[in-house]
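Re: Re: token formats

Sure, here are both.
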Amino acid sequence: NFTPMLCDLCTTQFRFATGKDILMMVVGGVCALIHGAATPLMLLVYGLMTNTFVAYEMEVQQLTDPNKTCINQTISWINGSVFQQADNSTLACGYVNTEICSQNSTFLSYVKIHCDSFYLPTSSFQIALWVSAAARQVQRMRKTYFRKIMCMEIGWFDCTSVGELNTRISDDIDKINNAIADQVSIFIERVSTFVFGFMVGFIGGWKLTLVVIAVSPLIGLAAGLMAMAVARLTGRELKAYAKAGAVADEVLSSIRTVAAFGGEDKETKREASWGIKKGVIVGAFQGCMWCIIFLCYALAFWYGAKLVLDTKELSPGTLIQVFFGILIAAMNLGQASPCLEAFASGRAAAKNIFDTIDREPQINCFSEEGHKLDKVKGDIEFHGVTFHYPSRPEVKILDGLNMLIKSGETTAFVGPSGSGKSTVVQLIQRFYDPKEGMVTLDGHDIRSLNIQWLRSLIGIVEQEPVLFATTIGENICFGRPGVSMEDVVKAAKEANAYNFIMDLPQKFDTLVGEGGGQMSGGQKQRIAIARALVRNPKILLLDMATSALDNESEAVVQEALDKVRFGRTTISIAHRLSTIRNADVIIGFEHGKAVERGTHNELLDKKGIYFTLVTLQNQSSDASSDAPSDEEPCVERTNSFSRKTKLSVCCFNKQDSGDSTEEQAKPAPVSRILKYNRPEWPYMLLGSLGAAINGSVSPIYAVLFSNILGAFSTEDLDMQRNQINGICILFIIVAVLSFFSQFLQGYAFGKSGELLTRRLRKLGFQAMLKQEIGWFDDPKNSPGTLTTRLATDASMIQGATGSQIGMIVSSLTNIGASLIIAFYFSWKLSLLVVCFLPLIGLSGAYQAKMLTGFANEDKKALEEAGQVSSEALSNIRTIAGLAKESVFVDLYEKQLETPYQAAKKKAIVYGISFGFAQCVIFMAFAASFRFGAYLVTSEGLHYMMVFRVISAVVISGTALGRASSFTPSYAKAKIAAAQLFKLLDRVPKISLSLTEGIKWDSFKGEVEFINCKFTYPTRPDIQVLNGLVVSVKPGETLAFVGSSGCGKSTSVQMLERFYDPDEGRVLIDGHPSTNVNVPFLRSKIGIVSQEPILFQCSIAENIQYGDNSREVSMDEVISASKKAFLHDFVMSLPDKYKTQVGAQGSQLSRGQKQRIAIARAIVKNPKILLLDEATSALDTESEKTVQAALDEARRGRTCIVIAHRLSTIQNADIIAVMSQGVVIEKGSHDELMAMKSAYYKLVTTGAPIS
């Protein structure tokens, strides 16, 4: 069973090995072979010594008779005749003063030479070489895997969750590392000991060896079955955890939505995943193994004694040599099984990783193939294109689309949501390939063109632009490699962004925050336009580039876009038709086909789709202004409820000093870790009982073994036989006992460890969800990092509890029992042997100390790399559109350098301390036998006691070694626990407790802001609210109007209590918000935001998410979706309400997502409704529907609206115009128009408000 597994190991897991690695592994392997052979070869000397001791004892017994003496090395009578035994044999003598000492000195010198020349270097090299070879391979594997993921086509990402990929990058590759590092060399060493052990056995006595061999396959069988079972279970466990990881990642990425709907408890339930009881199986098989081993002892001693006493084929020494040879062989075979477990886990993990590495992407963005045209005109044509998304093959998006986009013209796409407009843009960028038909550029099928080159021709500005968390300048530079500062400035001027950038304190070096969160919508959009322009693109794709902006920003951005369109092929998708009136060609889409084309006026005459859309849309507020805007550098997150992970490049280049203190968590006390395991105390008690019995088995064995040796020096043969038979029966009893105790230990601790891991993951996840929103703004708590932590910390903590406790208990019982036995029989010899124990222990402890240090560094460095990977994968579309995959691959590889260097250093330290620990044991043997011989000759100690004491203490020593070998994982566990406890102990600034704070029955929904001042915790230098004063009565609608970045969304977030004001108060029904119970408050507020976040589950479940305090019935879901004008659309889907919405709702169009979000808000029947630009991202038709749904939802509720389109808020009770964090005027539409100041100007011209 080993063979196929090992072959498999060699072909798959070592596929990243270079010549140098192979050489290192071969030399390491040879060292391991030599190291493995050393122990069995010592047995030859051991056997000679035993014979000497037995003969000496016989001589002493004979010479007690005064009539006998020693003549010519034979026992004789005093009269000179030779003494004959019952079977006419003679007895040798003369050992008393000479032999024992010389034999022991040979033994000593042999060991000394052996130790220095062989042991230290071979055992050190075997570890150091393998560990460093593994580090090199894993480094390559991580790079290759990430590079491969980055060159996958977008369709692959649609079907693979980012959270799962992150888990694979961190956990699975670690498992492979475990399988190809020191485990392999230890495996080789053990197999070598196994082979040499048998050889020594055959040299000594072939009959006995054969008898024992006949039984050994059973041991192998048990080990093999165990490895198989563990591999299967590990695979299942990995799957379960990867799924849980994906859930956690999704939830943490949309933390604002979770908070707004009070979904924290619900999410925790969703995340808890079920691990598998490996413990039971491991326990049962180990029990079997030990049971078989002890039965073998009984058989071997019984048969061996026969050969010594009856047929005289063996001497007691050769019996020992044979028996120990085979015993060591069998033990090493048994001990090789944990290595097989590691190989099996490694194989399971490698399969996932290598399947991805071997997958050929359908569209490879790193491919050098394909033509690059010398001259590009920019004619794009679609020939009968049919397309469906890979993740939803049953829904046809484009259906035989034919159209031509001429070079140098501006072509606009219009049509209802879901008619395929954005899909066309993605096909032009070649994110997907059409299923039928083709897309051509200047007559060439774009599949035949070089993909990086093709994407370099295209500039794209999306509705929700993704900025990377670095400076404004660097974000613009992402547009084109090697771009100069002049080009950046020029692009910024063209995009109307230059003025506002120069007003910021750090100009182009201003950090945009995670996902551009520190910039307002209009600012982000203009930076994105500058990024697209710096490429000097031949083709410009505008996917609703201005829909998310207020009038003033829109006017500015639109003006920028109009400037840059000339001389380029421009494709614009717009829902606000006023923005595309002057396009050269307008193409109307319906059901995946282009149904009409022409200019604005031609299409109005045709009275088709375009005509309907235009008549529906009221253009009153879309008068655009020619006045250039110099928007104030007042910054705010408009993107309030969609927090996706974005790349924190800046976090890597500028690691602030505060970071280092953060990570050096002090190891947590074990007592606290155990406290979390308290509910499992019955299991742990049972397990400890089993472990204690297991621990005492070895000392009992030491006593039985020395008794057998003692029996050989008894004169009476019948007595000898009876003694030996009695001992064999005792061995059988021990065998049965050991089966049950091993099973008990494995099962009980496996179960308690599994439950603990699950509990801690759950607690950690709960603690994360309890933190205030400001905590998530910190780049150190990005969803990628937090998911990685959840995955690794909880399972690492098992290293301090679970099966580890079992090991420690059994080791301690073992040491205790052994020492008691040893000191009872000879305290002098015991003292000497015990002197060596601290050395053995110390080397183990030192090893642990070093490894802990490394574990700390590794973890931190890999978390940073994890951030890069997580953010790159979350924004894969933007990165692919900018053809910047290789930049992220390089960044990731740079992050991997530190852990790699640490791993190489670790290899050497680990090797030396391992070698020293191995060597000390041999020295202990040599010294103690030398002293034992002295005690036998000069103090008349029975040689049986020498063997008993030495074997007892050595056994306790190995137990100590075993206990110290668990120190690395124990140390890792304590650090992981410290990280977790730090999270659990953190008191959130805004408590989500159900009991804290006041609740009241007749909640009216009156809201008042009194002199609120606020800055975001991550940007304390920029004042967002500057003394906000505004109030709204129950049932009224308050609308906030103002330019980007004046604090509109921030005030909404205050009301939700995502943040609390630095000064001033927010009153709800007259109660200060800081005194109100947070879950109670949020349960009364419904929110619909501009980019609603949906969860990866069904439509019904997403709507039910609106109220997490109870079970929402299907009837309520249906009535809410009817109110949101959603019901008819859902019923038209094949799976109705069970339809899965995909990751973040990606399977639905924006209008559909928006209506689900409205239904979700309605379901909880809120007293206060917050609409944060709820319709800005929609096309006219969807907007009408959604607006009607919103008007329906507003009835009888207090409503706060943030609108960038003034037409949507004219019927509000109060309109508050904001600028720079304060309200500059308020009143109804008519009152404000009559005032003829800021609002009037906005409505009539869209001019900026100062």
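Second one below.
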Amino acid sequence: MQTANKKPRKAPLEKAGAPRGRKANGVAQQNGEGDAVTLFEVVRLGKSAMQSVVDDWIESYKHDRDMALLDLINFFIQCSGCKGTVRIEMFRNMQNAEIIRKMTEEFDEDSGDYPLTMPGPQWKKFRYNFCEFIGVLIRQCQYSIIYDEYMMDTVISLLTGLSDSQVRAFRHTSTLAAMKLMTALVNVALNLSIHQDNTQRQYEAERNKIVGKRANEKLELLLQKRKELQENQDEIENMMNSIFKGIFVHRYRDAIAEIRAICIEEIGVWMKMYSDAFLNDSYLKYVGWTLHDRQGEVRLKCLKALQNLYTNRELFPKLELFTNRFKDRIVSMTLDKEYDVAVEAIRLVTLILQGSEDALSNEDCENVYHLVYSAHRPVAVAAGEFLHRKLFSRHDPQAEEALAKRRGRNSPNGNLVRMLVLFFLESELHEHAAYLVDSLWESSQELLKDWECMTELLLEEPVQGEEVLSDRQESALIELMVCTIRQAAEAHPPVGRGTGKRVLTAKERKTQIDDKNKLTEHFIMALPMLLSKYQADAEKVANLLQIPTFFDLDVYSAGRMEKHLDALLKQIKFVVEKHTETEVLEACSKTYSILCSEEYTIMNRVDIARSQLIDEMVDRFNHSVEDLLQEGEEADDDDIYNVLSTLKRLTAFHNAHDLTRWDLFGNCYRLLKTGIEQGTMPEQIVVQALQCSHYSILWQLVKITEGSPTKAFMLLCDLLMIFSHQLTTGSREALQPLVFNPDGQLQNELLSFVLDHVFIDQDEENQSMEGDEEDEANKIEALHKRRNLLAAFSKLIIYDIVDMPAAADIFKHYMKYYNDYGDIIKETLSKTRQTDKIQCAKTLILSLQQLFNELIQDQGPNLDRTSSHVSGIKELARRFALTFGLDQIKTREAVATLHKDGIEFAFKYQNPKGMEFPPPNLAFLEVLSEFSSKLLRQDKKTVYVHHSYLEKFLTEQMMERREDVWLPLISYRNSLLTGGDEDRLSVTSGGGSSKAGSVRSKKGRPPLHKKRVDGKDPSTCNEHSCLGSWLMRNDTIQTPGALQTPQLTSTVLRENPRQAAEQMPDQDSEPGSDPQMQMSWLGQQKLEEVNRKDRTGMNYMKARSGGVRRGLMEDDAEPIFEDVMMSSRGQLEDMNEEFEDTMVIDLPPSRNRRERAELRPDFFDSAAMIEDESVSGGFTMPMF
């Protein structure tokens, strides 16, 4: 088997001794290595003119026809995608079937693609070049070579054999070649037929001459020429018969749809090109049969082939029998499941209609009529073209114009408009008038834009010979007229048709502007008259009032047509006073709203008319409400109707207009209150009063939002808190439908608002306050507002209303804005850790990652590790690490998850320069090192030594690197390899025992050499079996539905220290006592540090206001630990066990403590949101 990368064989020209290095457009074109390229490559590249390529091949054929034919045979083989080559020995000694079998073995079995099916513009061009080559080849050979009984016989025989192959590529390529060859031969046969006719006429003309003037030699030459042409004609016909019977008849029903489509497409070309020979039932039947093909691609080719035939009216007589036989099938294809096929079928039916009015029955036409309402626009437009040809095309325009003038009409389209109305009514799809107009828009624009004719039919009395429009016909005409106005003004299809608004071309835009001006100028004068005539008909008025929405309102001022505006406003007022239907009133309200647009100069005139109308309605409403409430249960129907009718009008206007200055809410509230108290208020009045009150509230909200976005934000946060998932707690499951959970987009918008309005620099604040009195009071007030915003958003995070990762954008500002928001941020951190330790840890590391990414974006990948920015991130990480407290057992999984996420982030991206260079985020490991001290010894081993999670990301090259750029990795590895003893002796906690019952030693820590005998330390259990379980666990921990408020030291009940002392056992216990009996070495160290600060803590507590707990939004910025007065080791351990989850960052007191002490926060029920839980009978803390 020949490989795919085999060098192309030398062209026959070179083997036959032809000169090498020919022109660039020759067959034996030289490539860069000096070898001749194949004919296939020349055609594929398409750089040479096909005429020159064929001429060069003809030269080679004349020189050595075997080698030239061999080149042509290999051309067809290679165009099929076969890598094999037919050699001269095979060509001379083997049959076609044997050659094809041999070539079949040369196919690449790994790929099913071949040139005709390969995607891309290159192969699309190749297909065109392939077809062109065959056509040019026959055209250039038509006078000599094709009649040598060798070339054509060889080619046809080869293509016939290939077309019968089981290999799809051979079959497809050879069928295409054969069909194009047949098309070229048909063209040759047509030329021969023309030459024969010309020769015959010359012969007849010469023979009819008198004997003296007759040239016998010329007659003999003409006879000889006619005989030669006839022989050539016979040979061409034999060739065509061989192709048709040997290839077409078998391949038009091939299993591959593409091959069938090729056959049908080409037979259509033959019938159109040489209709005398091919346009007969013997060939048409193949197209008719294929109309039933199961593939839409083939059916589409059939219809397009027939369209080319039906376009020529001269061919209709030859198509009559075919039309009668296959008409039903063609009509049924208008409903084809493939939209492209249905469109072409409708166009074909339209061509049949144009050729013969009698060819289609009424039933056939009706099957196409209803397609104008199709949701698929191309189908509807094609059906609209058919409808226009059948019903709306004027057969004698001059006669109709003369008739219109005799009747006194300006437009001759009156009858056509009537016919359109009748068609619309008979279709019984009245709600689809917009679809009907859109379907006819491209074919019947002149008729649909004849608004003058439509208004004449509506306003003027019918003249002699015209029928009066019925009420139903008038309604239909008005609806159609409004739809045409909308289509002209908007210049895009109605809703439901098309994928969206497309960009108009310059010509379409100009047409749209002209149409809008035309309709505006006409209906400015006609609309008041139409409203006056039909003001009592709700349906007609509702449609007519849509027309002003499409006006160019500048025309009123530019054309000095204010009197027509006054007439329109007068008619609208009459309509409002006459109707109570919601549809009509909303149309009037919308019209006023459009006419009152501030961008137009007519706004003041319209606003005055609107205010007068509303004044009248409000006055009437107030009096009717007073009458109704005074009458009470004795109110009659008139009182109820007066209230209901005016309330309906006001409600409709309140929807689109701000009527708050008329204070409609007061009387609506009175009606509702009376209905609740007495229960006698009619339901319709209650509904309208509720609706009107609803609009009043909405307009007030709009004012609040426009005036102060801060108030809107606070209101939204409160609403989210009220309607959160906690609404259903306490056996209130019935309120579940009221629960609202904000989606991701709303959460992002809330967070963006906080970031934009809370975390702003002092310079920005001063700039925003420029022009105001910049004193301390203003600064404190501005800070107070920002703290309110942050606290409101923090509540949403704490109560799991906003996803916890959103807190990362808050936590990362802790250091920078500690003086302003430190207390709020650390309380948020404390509460979120109580909710979910692991998710809180992931949020902390996410905030550090965000800061790191921002630094990378500002400074680039090569960070200065000694810069203040990097140090700031490390300092923030150190502060975050302190919040995990001393009990490493309880924070074990959270810290491990934090390290896992940090490692993944550090090695997330590879260096584009290669593996020998550090990853871009490697410096983040230096930040992560700040948390290494919070890992237990065995967890450090899990991260680095045993089952190394870190080593999953390290290569041997990374492990050996010692350059400065790798220092973060070295530093992080060292932080994991140190501190093992401290971890082994770290604070332990018995998870199974209650906190109140914790037993502690009275004395100091036990000697370091003293070992446990019976008990096992939890920090050393299952070191190899379950060390990595926390790394592999699922991080999607379920968050508790309602947050349990933790106990703080200020709320703990204290008991007698003697009782606590009595509960402590003597230190001289058994060596195998419970681990809780031992106090850790770290605890002792912490105790000593606390004792050193004891005096400072005592002084600070004296300055505090007492033991009252401060809420989330209070102004305290001091650490929680300093709220506790401690003078004993037992107190330290109690505090460590109870409050390690709420331990906060220990920073110096705020400089702005005095300023924030003056703030008086007014938050949304903060006491209810974060409520202290009283502890009764629990753990006690002695006071000294």
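The chain is about 60% helix and 0% strand. The radius of gyration is 47 Å.
- S.
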